[in-house]
Amino acid sequence: MKFRITFKDPNGVDYNIQEVVSSILGSYFDELDGYELENVVSEKTLDIEEFIQKWVKWKECITIEFDTIAGTATVVESKNA
């Protein structure tokens, strides 16, 4: 049996992207001051947000299709991609 579930988390995507980018870039750019690091984090966050648009609608909704026969779960492409 196949079925889809859509999850909505208005703040989760933004928060988690910023956390990941900050933690990864922060360790590579120790020499940058707070303002410079903030700009780099902001730029990379926008890059990731653009990339995930294929699967995440409005930066808050994602649909997963589950297949109980195949034992799989697949993220469904967003219609706004």
Task: Explain how this protein is built.
This protein is of the alpha+beta class. It has one domain. The chain has 2 helices and 4 strands, in the order E-H-H-E-E-E. Strands 1, 2, 3 and 4 form a 4-stranded antiparallel sheet that branches. A hairpin with a 3-residue loop joins strand 2 and strand 3. The model has no long low-confidence stretch (mean pLDDT 86).
Short description:
The chain is an alpha+beta fold and 81 residues long. It has helices at residues 12-28, 34-52; strands spanning 2-8, 56-57, 61-67, 72-75.
Order of helices and strands: EHHEEE
- What class, by secondary structure content? alpha+beta
- Amount of beta strand: 15-25%
Average pLDDT, all residues = 86
Quick one: overall form? Answer: elongated
- Please count the beta strands (DSSP E, at least 2 residues each): 4
Stretches where pLDDT is under 50 for at least 5 consecutive residues are none
Tell me the quaternary state.
single chain
List keywords for this structure.
elongated; alpha+beta
Question: What's the SSE blueprint?
Answer:
Elements lengths: L1 E7 L3 H17 L5 H19 L3 E2 L3 E7 L4 E4 L6
Antiparallel strand pairs: 1-3, 2-3, 3-4
